[in-house]
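job 3f2a | input accepted
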Amino acid sequence: AGRDVINKGSVLESGRDMTIQAGRDVTIAPTEVTNSLFSDSKHNSSDITQLGSTASSGRDLTVQAGRDISFIASQIDAKRDIAMAATE
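job 3f2a | predicted structure (88 res):
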């Protein structure tokens, strides 16, 4: 991407090599799901669930960014090599 790559709460998957490339930032992060239940004025319930992201490659996984690379509460998997480079 010319600027940023942002993947929140989803799956990036390749059967072979995968390259994620951004001119600025690569961010792989969870997303938040909120469920609320309002039964009456005295009883309320809510929960928040974090859904993590996954980047999975059948061979090599390469991540290149012009500034920052952030993998937050997410899973990275490659059957061979993982290489990451941020140039700034």
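job 3f2a | The chain has one domain: 5-37+44-86.
job 3f2a | closed
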